[in-house]
Design goal:
Chain B: Belongs to the binding-protein-dependent transport system permease family. The complex is a heterodimer of chains A (307) and B (275). Chain A has 307 residues and is an all-alpha fold. Chain A has 13 helices and no strands. Chain B is globular. The two termini of chain B are 35 Å apart. Classes of the chains: A mainly alpha (307), B mainly alpha (275).
């Protein structure tokens, strides 16, 4: 049993084998990692722990019953259960619109032209408006006596004011105004990450504008669009203040955040509120998961650009 | 941009113009209403005044609200930089087992909407009697801000050549002076950009503040929401005045932010950690 092959890794004669600190350092573990400690402790204590606490709390219903009583109550009560569909009915069209509308605009804006920075800034400004100001603006601008309805009546498109706030449309508009800039920015940055010479090469080979987009740009852009859709969908699915302010919070736009908030903080039934928050996260994960599975079937190689 | 374009181009720019005109009208409606004596059903209010700013300032105690907003925003910026930058440094410079897990842990609070983790978080903060105070609001707002600093600073630190640090050590610098004389000056632009973005996000963060704030610890957005929600108690113009003050401060912050950060580049850099 003195075969030299089983000896510990090369330690030249006269030197001790490398210490544990040295061996760990070779795998990237050294004192620098201590810098991680505050950040990781912070996320674990203030993010992971509350989420797990909420998950655990959701299995301890206040009114007794089995561990799943809160979930049974949520899915058994149509008034609670239907909030999922109400929210999806708002979030999916809003996210789809935001992504689809940003494609042509970003496509026109990918090159360099005068005033590009100004236009980008103007398109990004709505992010700063925030949901609350947007709601206030929607009420005054799109309301029955607002300028929008006055113009519609003025040019004879309609005789009576169109009802655009305090219903489904108000919330949808608010989701578009706050979500579009975000989707646009993401799409623009994905699009500028695609090497323009690929399209030029296709043009040299005789592809017209439509076919260049269909066969070159779009397939390269699609994975980015999937991510953009996921992010805007998640934002829209958790819509909260605007559903109260420009929607019909007890009816058409009784979204899932409203019931989660009301159960937890108005009725102080924290377990039910946590259970609804978990359902909310689950629905989002399912939709995002579906989109990402679909995305994994797409081309994922280099796009050749700076991105 | 060519002046004579294809029908498609006209359609796209037309739609953009339509969106922007309506957006402008939306903001203008709020601004005009906040200055109007009375505006009901006409094209233009029958008189302009600044009285409602004064009354909003007094009735809502806006000075206190602004002080709280400033305190919260500055504390969140300072703490998230202090916690986030060292983490970003370690993530940028070392490859260690479990790095992916740590990255995902920092991605989740940004990807998940505040409403989902905000409710359990507020429950926990209420349990420890932290909610309802300025400290609770700061803690809640740190949850998305620290990961945001980590994720924006990591690529920034990656692009700083590690040989610069090695060279400083070769010349005999100790860790402290490597940090203060070499790293810190190189990090300043990145920290500045991240801080401004965190500032904008914190001032605009509604959900988390709303869930954790009590009387006396509301920020501007939340008190704007409260004044809108209890509309009817006070004049619509006063609510609009608060809205204008809020938008004005957000616009100033955004203009400052855009001087330091190019929005498209930021997203491109952020894109990388995504799977």
């Amino acid at each position: 049993m003195t075969a030299p092959t089983t000896a510990p890794p090369v330690s030249p004669p006269g030197e001790r084998p490398p210490g544990i600190a040295h061996r760990l350092a070779e795998r990237g573990i050294d004192r620098v990692l201590l810098l991680l400690v505050p950040g990781v402790v912070f996320v674990v204590v203030l993010f992971a722990y509350p989420v797990l606490y909420g998950l655990q709390l959701s299995f301890q219903p206040e009114e007794g019953g089995g561990p799943f009583a809160n979930y049974e109550r949520f899915f058994g009560d149509p008034y609670l259960r239907d909030t999922i569909w109400i929210t999806l009915r708002l979030a999916v069209p809003a996210a789809l619109f935001n992504v689809l509308a940003s494609i042509p605009i970003a496509y026109r804006m990918r090159g360099a032209f005068r005033g590009k920075r100004v236009l980008t800034t103007i398109l990004v400004v709505p992010i700063t408006l925030g949901t609350v100001l947007t709601a206030q603006g929607l009420i005054s601008y799109l309301g029955p006596a607002g300028w929008f309805n006055k113009i519609l009546i003025g040019i004879g498109l309609t005789d009576e004011p169109v009802r655009l706030v305090n219903n489904y449309w108000g919330v949808l508009f608010s989701l578009i105004i706050t979500g579009f800039p975000f989707a646009f920015l993401l799409t623009l940055s994905y699009l500028s990450g695609i090497d323009p010479t690929l399209e030029q090469a296709a043009a040299t080979l005789g592809a017209d504008r439509r076919r260049r987009f269909r066969h070159i740009t779009f397939p390269l852009l699609a994975p980015g669009l999937a991510i953009t859709f996921c992010l805007t969908f998640v934002l829209a699915f958790s819509v909260f203040p605007s559903a109260y302010l420009v929607g019909l919070p007890q009816g058409e736009t009784r979204v899932i955040s409203i019931v989660a908030y009301e159960s937890a903080f108005r009725d102080t039934d924290y377990p039910l509120g946590s259970a609804i928050a978990m359902v909310m996260a689950l629905v989002m994960l399912v939709v995002v998961g579906l989109v990402l599975v679909w995305r994994s079937t797409m081309y994922r190689g280099a796009t050749g650009g700076k991105g | 941009m060519r002046l004579v374009g294809s029908p498609g181009a006209w359609l796209v720019w037309g739609a953009v113009a339509f969106f922007l005109v309506n957006l402008f009208g939306l903001v203008l409606a709020v601004v005009v209403n906040s200055f109007s004596v009375q505006w009901f059903g006409t094209w233009w209010p029958n008189g302009l005044t600044t009285d409602y700013y004064a009354s909003a300032w007094q009735d809502l105690g806006l000075l206190d609200v602004l002080v709280v907003t400033g305190q919260v925003a500055l504390a969140v910026v300072a703490l998230s930089v202090l916690i986030g930058v060292p983490t970003a440094y370690a993530l940028a410079r070392r490859n260690f087992p479990g790095k992916r897990l740590v990255t995902v842990l920092f991605l989740l609070p940004i990807l998940l909407p505040p409403m989902t983790y905000g409710i359990p978080l507020a429950t926990v903060l209420y349990k420890f009697d932290l909610a309802g105070s300025v400290a609770g609001v700061i803690v809640a707002n740190l949850v998305p801000s620290v990961p945001f600093v980590v994720l924006t600073m990591t690529p920034f630190i990656e692009q700083i050549d590690p040989r610069i640090e090695a060279a400083a050590r070769m010349c005999g610098a100790r860790t402290l002076s490597v940090f203060t004389r070499v790293l810190a000056p190189l990090l300043v632009p990145g920290i500045l950009a991240a801080s401004i973005l965190v500032l904008v996000r914190t001032v605009g963060m509604f959900e988390l503040t709303f869930l954790t704030a009590g009387p006396g610890s509301q920020t501007l957005v939340v008190s704007l929401y409260e004044s809108m929600f209890s509309a009817g108690i006070r004049a619509q113009q006063a609510v609009d005045a608060v809205a204008v003050i809020y938008t004005g401060s957000m616009l100033v912050l955004l203009v400052i932010a855009l001087r330091f950060v190019n929005p498209t580049q930021l997203v491109t850099r952020l894109k990388e950690p995504a799977p």
